[in-house]
Write a structure and sequence with these properties.
Blueprint: E1 7-9, H1 13-23, E2 33-38, E3 43-48, E4 55-58, E5 64-70, H2 77-92, E6 95-102, H3 108-124, H4 127-142, H5 151-163, H6 167-177, H7 183-190, E7 198-205
Parallel strand pairs: 5-6, 6-7
Antiparallel strand pairs: 1-4, 2-3, 4-5
Helix pairs in contact: 2-3, 4-5, 4-7
Length: 220
């Protein structure tokens, strides 16, 4: 459990919904939600933030910190689903922080990589401009004009290749290369990132729970 007096916690679902809705003006449709069906009365209800992970403000900063507690089960599939559920809300925030908590620091590198690829990089970058840059570098490489490709652009191409994988992007590339799809058409289709995001990700190791019958030792 995280306990620190300088943190202002949102302890209930109602407090979280009120903060994002009333304080930040974010529609409920962007909040992570789950639909529950009551078979006895044939009525459904929507619940928000059902994961119940701690969420807080580190006073006096107005930047909200989300947390994720990894219990070691299911690898990273639950973490990935968690991020995908929160993405609509993340996109509405200009600045936020996420803290990944685990009893083992062996998960930290992979968790950071997943967060960067799913959340931070897409939010902080402009997808249309990144795609056009990828197309330009890819075209130079395919035409064997290697001298015109810098080391930085080669690294970018290798990273973007998996990001822009799929028939939609392949179709856009073919059309762009043949002069049938303009850069402006791609920008119009994908949109531009006119919302500036500042995204931070941190990791922290949880202290192990005490074992009954054993003396507690101080953790440095």
């Amino acid at each position: 459990m995280i306990a620190n007096q300088q943190y202002e916690y949102f302890e209930t679902e109602a407090e979280k919904v009120a903060y994002f809705g009333e304080k930040l003006g974010i529609n409920k449709s962007f909040l992570p939600a789950r639909l529950y069906l009551n078979r006895n009365i044939a009525r459904s209800s929507v619940r928000y933030f059902v994961d119940q992970f701690p969420m807080f403000l580190a006073s006096p900063s107005p930047v909200v910190t989300f947390t994720y507690l990894h219990d070691g089960a299911n690898g990273f599939s639950d973490f990935l689903r968690h991020l995908e559920a929160y993405l609509p809300l993340f996109r509405r925030l200009s600045e936020f922080r996420m803290l990944y908590l685990s009893h083992s620091d062996s998960y930290f590198a992979r968790a950071t990589e997943i967060f960067d690829s799913v959340v931070r990089i897409p939010l902080e970058s402009d997808i249309a401009e990144d795609l056009l840059r990828y197309f330009r570098v890819r075209k130079l490489w395919n035409e064997k004009r290697y001298a015109e490709v810098t080391d930085a652009e080669l690294i970018f191409r290798n990273q973007a290749r998996s990001r822009f994988k799929g028939e939609v992007f392949e179709g856009l590339y073919r059309g762009w290369r043949m002069g049938l799809v303009s850069a402006e058409a791609i920008r119009e289709r994908l949109g531009t990132n006119d919302r500036k995001h500042s995204v931070a990700f941190g990791t922290s190791k949880l202290c192990p729970l005490p074992v009954p019958g054993k003396e507690l030792t101080e953790v440095e």
